[in-house]
């Protein structure tokens, strides 16, 4: 039992430290949100890709960055309603 | 990683570094130059540059002090002055997960690492700080933040001993917190503070908040220097659209606090204010402008500490720059209250990534997001209240974002008022596509490029070389001259007086005099009836003219003496300096003369005989303060050169012999500065009949030749002419085109660059009262031009285009390019004209600056460009909201192989591409144009509708292969429409490129690499037989051979994949009997998988790859270009031993630990490991990083020696030679 508790604590510590670390009950929404947030964060860090996107969408780099930042809040939309969890 | 160089290995080399700026800041690393020459630190791609602004009376320039490749993705740069130090320190935030503090070492001209602290994993990650960098204005600490959660702060301290110490990292982390922007507040000398615009998404994600948009807030973080920790000290809700934050000066200069920029609004916010002070961002008035909120993309604060005044320059997304001032009243010494905000329209400038206001001299440096960066001289600061009162706005509204404000509008100007254009720094970004072709029949192919955004787009012809500005080009009749000398009258004269032109064809010499004009002199003592072999001003004021039958000496008083050539022989070649003269006689003998102080030539009695006919002679220049040069070099027909002593004690004694690959045609001995030691070294430059140029060092003591470097210059014999350019001794080499050899001013390497001008037979320096340059002879034309600007690498010629170019294709027969252009969210020309015609004159009066924004509209056209005459031949505008996506010139078998231009389009596209409806509108079209009037005009034939936009087309066996969405189809031309012939092959997502060879088609998928497709003509079927096992977001690819594809992806990788041999053979089996038809799909893909042969990260999105040679006589390389303006080459290795050599070099160069101990040299400045950087997404395979190997050339000598020792059996000069030749052999 103590072992299980420690594992649980370790996992929680990990999840706290490394955003996006999953657990047994990770939902699809959590998972996809994490993937999208990682992607948006990565785009912003690559200047040439930002320029590529800015040229492609006929805007500017700041607009693309703003868009990425805004999308990071709810990248795949709001979470699904809670009741549906019941079988 | 040990040895994965299994088969083909490439040497990856950057030919032109990326020009797209990432970040820049002002700094002061050379304290002595603080007030006279302000310095800048800027990052472009993976390179950082330290520059200084040099302003003279007649011009100003940005001089590069230092450039260095840091082998990491640079995200921001900063500079700070730690209290008590004289100079500024620099910092770079990158993907290394480390904080670096750098100091510029003036003496060694390099950046020295003071501190390097690791705080996280490497790579661009969501929670690893590095995205934002803010430095305390008083230089006490800096903060780096990540996009989400983490912030790290370092505190600096200066010990009394002068040593700079750095604290351990202080973290201020909060989960679920997104940071939009970060800045350091000016708190005067109280605890440093940082302000950030942040969003906590925890509430919305848990569903516990009713808001669909999270609350954005402005948070202050205080760094407590006493307690040594960082804590959030204040928070206030702010505009949910806020995207930028700037610091407001504090202390005695201002009220402190932050300027928050949001969509359509600006706010001044500070702790203790009830509500923020706000002002709307004015909107443009223009004939075609629609109401739309602008946002700030970039800005700069300027604070004059002496006058205690400050202002902001803020640029909107249209490029309009506003000057923002805070009107304040002083309450106490360091306490102010802000009364109102004043916004004045300043100028409209190119959209910037960074704007720097330089105080003395008053300049504005705009690092443009696209196109060339600009330097402006600031003439005024919009202080005049009466000028354009309608463009000045005040606001004293204290309210937050929920309070709506009346929109403001202003009238933009179309010309500069407060700034004057000073300097344009050429740039290539965004480089959409390039092509390497030789359309003009020159020695080397030219690079054709489409570049730019919107109405600033250009079609560029890029040539490697330096441009020369021609001052005089005068034909001298129809006599072909082949030699030219320009001479002074006496040694102490300032200017040249005589120009001698010799023609061996007509056996005549012409003498010109330089006065106010250059004119023929008839009555000189020079012998005009013979061709001159060499002529020189010797001694004090004598002139020597060597012709085939003798040597004529003209002394200063006009007396002429003639030395006749021995009987039965003639003079073949000659060389002279100020005191000595060597003749090569046709009897293979050498004659040697020495000029005494009386101006008479004294001949040496014996004529030593050489081994073969003498073809070239060179003699070193007379050293300053001495009478004689030490060495002369003689070249003979038997392909050898001999170094002879020219000392009077041991005249013409052979010192060393060197065998050559061909007959030497020209030899010059030149004293040049050795940049490594800054001492003077004697070089011998040798031109060979085969067009090869060699350079070797003559050992001062022994006369031995060493360190021979070669370069192929052209298909004609090379002739060499030494001269002085920009204060350094250079050589001009004339082969089929002229070249200049010099020590590069920045890299300090000896560089050979072609002069972009016509061919030249001979050249000489030319110094007159008005012109100081070069005179040259090209057949019978005398040409005088300004000296080239050393260090320039490319010469551009450009043609203006209408819209952003997307792709282009060459006419197969004529030197013409068809460029497809399109701009999203922009009014098309036709709609624009229609709208304008409906308007009243009053509305018309307002100028329209830039392209009018209009959502869901597309402006698109096809233009025919003639790059040779630099003009647009014709333009076809697309209608019906269509946008051109791809193009190809296709010859149709059904039409007797007549070539048509095919353009694939999409209709009603969203700028973020998505499939559109098919019925009615949307989808895509395939336009067919007939090429008229030698390809200069396009005649629309017909267009065919498709269900999806068309992103790729390619000619295929007299028909055309079209990628429609995920499907590959083959079409033939019909009279009314294109006719479908076959279909069947599908890629996973969308076809974006098609390459063909034989029956094979290679389709690039937008997200899943390439698929190999075979066409079976007998069954008329397309079969996908091989695809990739890695997802690659293909942007471009090319088949370098039948099996191999090289391509690039959106994440900045270049890769090479190959089809396994047996699979390739199976696919090509005759008929349908083969297995390939019945092969089962493997893991939901094609039956077989491609092998990855090479992979490297280049930190730029490759837009073009092409297999082509780049230099005359060079091997084929894979040329690539990227959107940030990078041009590079992948040179395939031919010999196994070269691979081993460079592989070893890389290994020892990577040894940071060892190198650091030697002379404190540390190659990657940001602390990023080069190998992990090049393997950012996938491990490096089959590549040697040439840019990294070239860093060897810049290492200090001790470090070079260490690497050489470790590598065993290698000497430093030998390694350097191999590195340099790797580049010069295949590229430039």
Automatic annotation (TrEMBL), chain A:
Organism: Cladosporium halotolerans
Signal peptide: none
One GO CC term on file: precatalytic spliceosome
Protein name per the record: Splicing factor subunit
Sequence similarity: Belongs to the SF3B5 family.
Pfam families per the UniProt record, alphabetical: SF3b10 (PF07189)
InterPro entries hit by this protein: SF3b5/RDS3-10, Splicing_factor_3B_subunit_5
An annotated GO BP: mRNA splicing, via spliceosome
From TrEMBL, chain B:
Domain of life according to the entry: Eukaryota
Pfam families the record matches: Beta-prop_RSE1_1st, Beta-prop_RSE1_2nd, CPSF_A
Residue ranges of every copy of the RSE1/DDB1/CPSF1 C-terminal domain listed in the record: 859-1193
UniProt cross-references to Gene3D superfamilies, sorted A to Z: YVTN repeat-like/Quinoprotein amine dehydrogenase
Location of the RSE1/DDB1/CPSF1 second beta-propeller domain: 469-786
GO molecular function: nucleic acid binding
Boundaries of every RSE1/DDB1/CPSF1 first beta-propeller domain copy: 57-390
Keyword terms: mRNA processing, mRNA splicing, Nucleus, Spliceosome
Any one GO BP annotation for this protein: mRNA processing
Subcellular location: Nucleus
A GO cellular component entry from the record: spliceosomal complex
Family statement: Belongs to the RSE1 family.
Listed name of the protein: Uncharacterized protein
Organism: Cladosporium halotolerans
């Amino acid at each position: 039992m103590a072992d299980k508790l420690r594992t649980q604590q370790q996992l929680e510590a990990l999840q706290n430290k490394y955003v996006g670390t999953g657990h047994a009950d990770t939902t699809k929404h959590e998972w996809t949100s994490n993937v999208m947030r990682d992607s948006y964060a990565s785009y912003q860090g690559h200047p040439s890709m930002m320029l590529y996107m800015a040229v492609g969408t006929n805007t500017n780099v700041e607009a693309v960055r703003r868009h990425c930042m805004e999308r990071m809040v709810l990248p795949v939309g709001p979470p699904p309603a809670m009741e549906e969890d019941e079988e | 990683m040990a040895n994965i160089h299994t088969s083909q290995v490439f040497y990856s080399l950057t030919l032109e570094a990326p020009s797209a700026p990432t970040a820049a800041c002002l700094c002061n690393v050379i304290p002595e130059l603080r007030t006279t020459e302000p310095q800048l630190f800027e990052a472009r791609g993976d390179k950082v540059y330290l520059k200084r602004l040099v302003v003279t009376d007649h011009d100003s320039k940005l001089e590069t002090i230092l450039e260095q490749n840091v082998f990491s993705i640079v995200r921001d740069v900063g500079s700070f002055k730690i209290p008590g130090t004289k100079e500024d320190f620099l910092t770079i935030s990158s993907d290394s997960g480390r904080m670096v503090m750098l100091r510029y070492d003036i003496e060694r001209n390099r950046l020295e690492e003071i501190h390097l602290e690791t705080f996280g994993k490497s790579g661009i990650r969501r929670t690893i700080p590095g995205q934002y960098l803010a430095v305390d204005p008083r230089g006490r600490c800096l903060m780096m933040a990540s996009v989400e959660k983490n912030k790290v702060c370092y505190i600096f301290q200066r010990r009394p001993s002068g040593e700079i110490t750095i604290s351990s990292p202080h973290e201020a982390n909060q989960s679920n917190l997104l940071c939009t922007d970060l800045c350091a507040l000016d708190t005067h000398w109280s605890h440093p503070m940082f302000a950030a615009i942040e969003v906590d998404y925890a509430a919305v994600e848990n569903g516990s908040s009713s808001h669909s948009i999270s609350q954005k807030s402005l948070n202050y973080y205080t760094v407590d220097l006493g307690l040594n920790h960082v804590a959030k000290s204040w928070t206030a809700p702010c505009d949910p659209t806020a995207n930028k934050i700037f610091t407001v000066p504090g202390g005695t200069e201002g009220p402190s606090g932050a300027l928050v920029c949001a969509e359509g609004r600006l706010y001044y916010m500070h702790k203790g204010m009830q509500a923020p002070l706000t002002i709307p961002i004015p909107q443009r008035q223009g004939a075609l402008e629609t109401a739309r909120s602008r946002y700030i993309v970039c800005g700069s604060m300027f604070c004059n500490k002496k006058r205690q005044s400050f202002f902001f320059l803020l640029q909107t997304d249209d490029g309009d720059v506003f000057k923002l001032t805070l009107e304040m009243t002083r309450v106490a010494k360091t306490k102010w209250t802000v009364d109102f905000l004043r916004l004045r329209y300043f100028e409209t400038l190119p959209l910037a990534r960074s704007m720097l206001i330089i105080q003395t001299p008053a300049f504005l440096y705009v690092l443009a997001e696209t196109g060339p960066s600009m330097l402006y001289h600031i003439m005024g600061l919009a202080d005049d209240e009466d000028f354009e009162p309608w463009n000045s706005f005040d606001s004293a509204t204290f309210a937050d974002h929920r309070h709506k404000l009346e929109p403001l509008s202003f009238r933009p100007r179309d010309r500069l008022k407060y700034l004057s254009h000073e300097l344009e720094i050429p740039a290539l970004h965004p480089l959409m596509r390039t092509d390497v072709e030789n359309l003009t029949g020159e020695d080397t192919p030219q690079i054709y490029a489409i570049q730019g955004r919107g109405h600033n787009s250009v079609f560029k012809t890029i040539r490697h070389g330096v441009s020369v500005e021609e001052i005089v080009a005068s034909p001298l009749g129809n006599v072909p001259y082949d030699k030219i000398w320009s001479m002074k009258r006496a040694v102490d004269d300032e200017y040249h007086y005589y120009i001698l032109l010799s023609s061996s064809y007509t056996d005549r010499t012409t003498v010109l005099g330089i006065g106010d004009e250059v004119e023929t002199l008839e009555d000189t003592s020079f012998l005009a009836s013979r061709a001159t072999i060499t002529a020189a001003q010797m001694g004090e004021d004598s002139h020597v003219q060597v012709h085939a039958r003798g040597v004529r000496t003209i002394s200063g008083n006009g007396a002429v003496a003639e030395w006749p050539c021995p009987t039965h022989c003639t003079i073949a070649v000659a060389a002279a300096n100020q005191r000595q003269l060597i003749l090569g006689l046709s009897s293979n003998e050498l004659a040697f003369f020495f000029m005494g102080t009386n101006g008479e030539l004294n001949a040496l009695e014996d004529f030593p005989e050489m081994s073969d006919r003498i073809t070239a002679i060179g003699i070193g220049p007379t050293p300053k303060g001495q009478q004689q040069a030490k060495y002369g070099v003689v070249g003979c027909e038997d392909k050898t050169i001999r170094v002879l002593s020219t000392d009077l004690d041991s005249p013409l004694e052979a010192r060393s012999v060197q065998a050559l690959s061909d007959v030497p045609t020209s030899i010059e001995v030149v004293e040049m500065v050795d940049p490594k030691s800054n001492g003077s070294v004697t070089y011998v430059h040798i031109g060979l009949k085969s067009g090869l140029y060699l350079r070797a060092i003559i050992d001062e003591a022994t006369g031995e030749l060493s360190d021979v470097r070669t370069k192929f210059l052209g298909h004609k014999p090379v002739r060499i002419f030494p001269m002085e350019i920009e204060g350094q001794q250079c050589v001009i080499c004339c082969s089929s085109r002229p070249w200049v050899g010099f020590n590069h001013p920045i890299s300090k390497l000896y560089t050979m660059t072609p002069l972009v001008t016509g061919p030249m037979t001979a050249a000489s320096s030319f110094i007159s009262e008005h012109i100081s340059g070069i005179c040259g002879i090209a057949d019978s034309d005398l040409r005088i031009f300004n000296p080239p600007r050393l260090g320039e690498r490319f010469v551009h010629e450009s043609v203006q285009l209408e819209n952003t170019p997307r792709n282009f294709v060459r006419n197969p027969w004529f030197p013409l390019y068809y460029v497809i252009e399109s701009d999203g969210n922009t009014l098309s020309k036709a709609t624009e004209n229609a709208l304008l015609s409906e308007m009243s004159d009053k509305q018309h009066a307002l100028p329209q600056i830039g392209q009018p924004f209009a959502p869901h509209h597309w402006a698109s056209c096809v233009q025919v460009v003639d790059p040779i005459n630099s003009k647009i031949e014709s333009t076809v505008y697309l209608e019906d909201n269509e946008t051109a996506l791809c193009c190809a010139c296709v010859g149709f078998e059904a039409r007797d192989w007549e070539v048509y231009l095919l353009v694939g389009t999409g209709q009603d596209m969203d700028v973020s591409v998505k499939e559109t409806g098919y019925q009615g509108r949307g989808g895509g079209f395939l336009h067919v144009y007939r090429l008229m009037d030698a390809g200069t005009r396009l005649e629309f034939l017909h267009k065919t509708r498709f269900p999806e936009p068309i992103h790729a087309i390619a000619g295929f066996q007299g028909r055309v292969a079209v990628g429609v969405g995920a499907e590959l189809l083959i079409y033939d031309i019909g009279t009314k429409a294109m006719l479908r012939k076959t279909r069947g092959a599908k890629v996973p997502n969308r076809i974006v490129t098609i390459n063909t060879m034989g029956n094979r088609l290679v389709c690039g998928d937008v997200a899943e690499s390439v698929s190999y497709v075979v066409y079976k003509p007998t069954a008329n079927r397309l079969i996908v037989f091989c695809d990739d096992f890695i997802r690659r977001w293909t942007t471009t690819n090319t088949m370098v051979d039948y099996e191999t594809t090289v391509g690039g992806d959106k994440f900045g990788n270049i890769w090479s994949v190959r089809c396994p041999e047996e699979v390739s053979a199976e696919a090509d089996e005759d008929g349908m009997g083969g297995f390939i038809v019945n092969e089962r799909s493997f893991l939901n893909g094609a039956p077989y998988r491609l092998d990855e042969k090479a992979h490297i990260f280049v930190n730029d999105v490759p837009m073009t790859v092409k297999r082509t040679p780049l230099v005359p006589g060079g091997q084929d390389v894979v040329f690539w270009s990227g959107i940030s303006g990078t041009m590079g080459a992948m040179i395939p290795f031919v010999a196994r031993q070269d691979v081993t050599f460079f592989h070893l070099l890389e290994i020892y160069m990577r040894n940071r630990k060892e190198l650091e101990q030697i002379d404190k040299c540390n190659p990657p400045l940001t602390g990023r490991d080069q190998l992990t950087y090049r393997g950012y997404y996938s491990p490096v395979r089959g590549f040697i990083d040439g840019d990294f190997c070239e860093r060897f050339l810049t290492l200090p000598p001790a470090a070079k020696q260490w690497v050489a020792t470790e590598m065993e059996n290698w000497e430093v000069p030998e390694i350097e030679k191999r590195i340099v030749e790797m580049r010069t052999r295949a590229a430039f």
